[in-house]
Amino acid sequence: MAQETVIEVKNLTKMYGNHVGVKDLSFTVNEGEIMGFLGPNGAGKTTTIRCCLALLAKTAGEITIFGLDSHRDAVEIRKKTGYLPGEFGLIPSVKVKSYLKYLLSLHGCGSTEKMLSLSEQLQLDLDRKTNELSKGNKLKVGIVQSLMTDEDLIILDEPSGLDPLMQQEFYRILRREKKHGKTIFMSSHNLAEVESICNRVAIIRKGQLVVVEDIQVLQEKTGKVLEVEFRDPFTIDEFDFAGVSSIHQDDGRLILTIHENLDSVIKAVSNHQILTMNLKTYSLERLFLKYYAEEEANERGDT
Amino acid sequence: MFGKIAFMELKTGWKGLLTFSLLALILSAGIPLIFPTYRDSIIEQLEGASKVHIDLPEEQGGIITLSWEPLKAATSYMVLQDNRLSMVTPSIKYIGNATSITFEKDFEEKRYYAIMAVIDETSDPVLIGITATEKGEDPFQELLKNPAYAGLTGGRNISMLEVKGFVALEYYSWSWMLTGLYIAYLSVSLIASDFENKRMDVMFSTPISRRRYLLEKFTAMSAIALVIILVQIAGLTWGLASISALNEFSANAVLLSLVGSLPFLMTIAAVGIATAVLFQKGRTGMGITFAFVFAEFFLYTFGGFSKSLEWMKTISIFKYWDYFSVIIDGLFKTGDFLILALLAIALIIVTTRLFQKKDIPT
Fold this sequence. Notes:
The complex is a heterodimer. By secondary structure, chain A is of the alpha/beta class.
């Protein structure tokens, strides 16, 4: 099925004076997917999102959303977009319910049904005053307001910070939204989050795009990580097979990455007495660290 | 539907507006109430002048005779001399027991003499009266010839002994400071607090354009200005009615003179909104807007100092709220009203253009 492009960012550059916000960034977000936008703090994720929503002027490049120009047609785009900012404040001294109703009215949305059901799922007390909310509850208000108008596109800027149970509930809500055909574009520096709910991911660093990949393909490319703790001594050489990389010892544990030859590795492991063993998907965190280590090594080599 | 943002501002800010309105009500109702007491005390003071008599020579170099009614309790008398009515730089002309002195008129300028009675060594001398070497007027009318006052009144002959003059000078000529600065403060904070408290991102994730946002904030400010003006009108009319002065200072004059301040306050609000959009910080915006209001006031008063400085008045917003014209001449200047209203709207249009190009900081 040919997917339609919802967001198309083409050669986006945003400068803050002499400081680069993002540089020559290009990627697309397709209809009906959850696209992760991953990068460390200060990589340019928020800048990109805020350029998409015309909160920031572009220095160069083009952004189209639903085929509309991000800046010229900003109001039209916002009619079909829900947005959770990374940082936001609420109007103080009003009840959460009247604040959310106010935002609904600004959206021109008459129905409070979804607002009420989302609040219930996230256990958000609508009768509390906005200035009496904890950080987590404030985030819930942000999440509810981004989803309550039932828009086709949902942009979330680092939507983490809920307690673990609520975070899982939030992911369930996002998956359901996706099932209903919504397109979700979310930035994060939380790799587990992106891995657990995104279809694709764009990785950004220092304002430049590193890679855009399907999560599955990325995981296949990067392999599995094996961590074993033995009762008896071992040497690294025992596990040096073709298709195995990054073999090292860390605090008496063996850690290695397996791309192929899983069978040989497991057999070699079984020659020892095993205390604990853990085989997991190569985490994006490691990918990140690995990528940066390479980058920095290259940079050092250049200078 | 237009008005939701403006309504939200009124909904969340009503307590502050109510407090300010109460203050404005007390002041506007209270000032006329002071008038009768004030007038009576002044008349009493002026009566003192009849207790002092001055004989002036026909020609320069002749003899001046200054005499006054004796005061029983007085142990001696003191005559102070100054060339200003305010008597802030007097010199002692005479100390002694006489109730009449003579001296040569060896000067040309107008001089004032204050005769004081010394009662005893421990208490302050008592003023018997003031007289001058030229025919005197109501001392306050002389005060009004001072360029600073003449600038304010447009050179009109205003008597503090009439309720019109009293209210115009004691209420109108400073109430702008109260209402103008409140509007300046509020208009800046209405926008700057959205920046500072990071409310802009959520606002502009809704299909509200930046133009509409500013227009609604401006509408809210205009509505607040109107509320304050209506409170002032009610207070002042009530105050005037309580001293039965509405036949001298009509309710219609109160209404028109204060409604004339609406575009004046709207212009201040527009400047406040503009500085908040440009600097995105409350403190900076308020500093600049307050400075703007005072600068405009000084331009207006300096403009009254001389003919060559009159252009300064033209660029001051104070020129276009001519409450003296309504109160004294009975003339409401529709042209001035429109000029300020258009200026406020023009400022908002320019601010909108600037805002549309500006980044919203995180």
